[in-house]
Amino acid sequence: MMFFQVSNVFALTRDGDERLERRSALQTLTARESDAIDFFMECDMDTDKGNDAAGRELLQWSQWQLMDSVLPTGGFAHSYGLEAAVQTQFVTSPLDLKPYIVQVLENTGSLLLPFVYCAYISPDIANWSKLDKLLEATLTNEVSRKASASQGSALLRVAASVYLEVPSLKRMRDAYLGSGTAYFHHAPIFGLICGLLGFDSNTCQKMYLFTTMRDVISAATRLNLIGPLGASVLQHQLAPVAERITKKWMDHPVEEACQVAPLLDTVQGLLGHNNVACLPKLRFSSLFALARDGDELLLRRSALQKPTAREIE
Amino acid sequence: MITIAFLLGPPCLGPDWSIDSDPTVDDRKSENGGSPGTDGYRGSCSVSLDSMDGEEEEKKKGRVKVENVGGKSTVTRCFSCYPLKLILPNKAGSSKSDAVWIYALSYGGGIVSGDRISLAISVGDGCTAILTTQASTKVYKSVDSKCSEQILEARVGRDALLAVIPDPVTCFATARYSQKQVFRLYADSSLVLVDWITSGRHESGERWEFDLYRSMNHIYLEEDQPLFIDSVLLDKTSDTSIAERMQGYQVMAMVVISGPKLKDLRHQLQEEVKQMMSARSPNSSRNYHIKSEFQHSPTRLPLIASCSPFGPQVSFKIFTRSLVPGQPPKGIYCSVFTHPCMIYLAPSQALGVVVRIAATTTHSVYMFLKHHLAALEPFLGAAPYCQSGR
């Protein structure tokens, strides 16, 4: 599978969609991209993705790419309220971090996993549009709502260009972009993409929770609450918790979506007040201006720094 | 949310109160010899656990209808059935304001395990109605894992205002409680909704010891467009206990303000909450006279509030041809931003705002609500939460 130049088109912009749209509209398909389309079209004809073992194995590569933090979906833009929690001293030390992340995962499972699931089982545009509007009303916290919309539209933009074997993604995006009737929230789009690509249900929902865990731990690293190595240790420790939460909240209809951590919601809303970063990606970008590569840069920084006491432990 | 109060003998509500009972109240045969009550209410209904769409449930549903009669908001229908009691005091608000106050109470001082209370309220065009309580809603312990339930369905007409401003729900240890409130609004309807919960008898040490609390608040615009869908679930089956999740806070509150009539209040509230939180420091609570109860985290605030707008951008269009000297302009209405043909005469603003509050004491939240909702007095005839001792 080729990781081609498409990533360069997306990586430089902080302003998201507008500049990207202009650039990609001007560009014609490179030779490599046309080859990629041909490659996937052939695969589509040769394998029956749903049933064939070879098709499933090929799907794994798509799965891993979707979960990779290198995928330019702006996952680093959202701190899941961690920044506000630090400022209001709800999280003051690495000891507070783990319970905070567990609450974020639980709230994600209870509120957002049903949207992922419902978009997954019925990956058509009409259902997606309904779920998108419902999630817009359900995310009553403005900070979460904006972050979800920006992440979702970035994900759709990437998926429409990467997963060319599913042309409906691009069609959908072209139809709804600029219409004002779609918000492109992250959870339904994630479910839709997984459904259209043919992942299985359990994997899709686990992937969603995994990407949430990955992003909030990454934010903790950037906020200097924990070092990169400590973050990896924490992520592994949280795996059984994330598994339990996924099992508890998977396969629920959207009517049962609810918040289980209302205090978290209250704290998350505080971020907007201080105008520190309503869209945190601006601040992160200025601190790590070259961090297209996210973790790589951090690791380089931490390699230069002396290990902290936490990391020694 | 429906309030529960302890009703002792004749209504000791003061000489200005009179109880309007609708002549169309149905007489029901008392199935278990329920008490006749002292105010003319006759009969009682047994509680069944059928689904809400069943005919039995429809009969037991409390109903209030507020309509414009002779230019004044008037209750034209009022029906309630055990365990719900509705009281409509004549002089709750000043006589200058056009608003109907509806108190929802219960027999026996609280909701017992397995009770199911439902109320449907309809506010006609141009009317104002307030639904409130006399005291906090106490939910007693659950027997046989039964869940108590309260359901409110409200329809608010054009240019009408509904304020749901109850006292908090207090669930005692092992209680199981679920409430659902559904509001159907037009684009020019206004709504004030306060929904809050305390941790239990927290002064006695009972803190977040209930088994289940679920609260759903759904606001729909123009019949079926979801505007605000909020659902909170607190139960004991999570990895972390409820008390741990609450981090020492004893009261969680939510205030929703939506609609064109309340634009100024929304703006004012957003500014005040922002100022309050940005001026924060360990001592910023002195305006509210709160002592911090935290031992392990003394720098955490005793009351935190955050504010979020929601809903589509709203613009206003005024029909100037309806202007007659001395009369308010008719036809002021809102249209959703996406219509390109409208003329925008006012800056766009989100349709609603939600404020979420976490606090260590119930009193501090009463003070917050009293202070920040005082601007509702001209609409309601009296300021919400202004009674002393609450």
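The two ends of chain A are 40 Å apart (CA to CA).
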